[in-house]
Amino acid sequence: MSHQGTRHWGRHGAAGLLLLAPVDNGTAAVLLQHRAPWSHQGGTWGLPGGARDSHETPEEAALREAHEEAGLPREHLQVRFSVVTADVRGPGGVHWTYTTVVADTSEQLPTVLNPESTALNWVALEQVTALPLHPGFAASWKLLSSQL
Fold first, then answer.
1. Which of 31, 32, 40, 77 is the most exposed place for a label (fewest CB within 10 A)?
2. Which domain holds residue 84?
3. What is the pTM for the complete model shown?
């Protein structure tokens, strides 16, 4: 879907996983994906995620995409909550949403790159905004970080 000069992927919306893991000093780190140069907003950091299938909830889509894009095993992820972080109303009644699914894991899990990423890194929460973030993720970070 394209609206106001911005392209939105996924006819049924999209979802991403904000996965938190503990750090030795008692704080948390989030898993971020450095997007491949050829991808939409390539070269920026964001969350593993993508388009929802017609039969999926946002949580199912986010967990599937995290497995596909980062090799994360679902059985090690505990969904905490979900929040719609983008809500676009297009012409002709088209409605598109992006849902961020926040989950926890007990440790910084190993990851497996796929062609959509150039890196997957665990980043301390206080360091997230120091990175060149995907514009959609950057726009939602203040809301998301206030709820963590």
1. 40
2. 2-146
3. 0.90
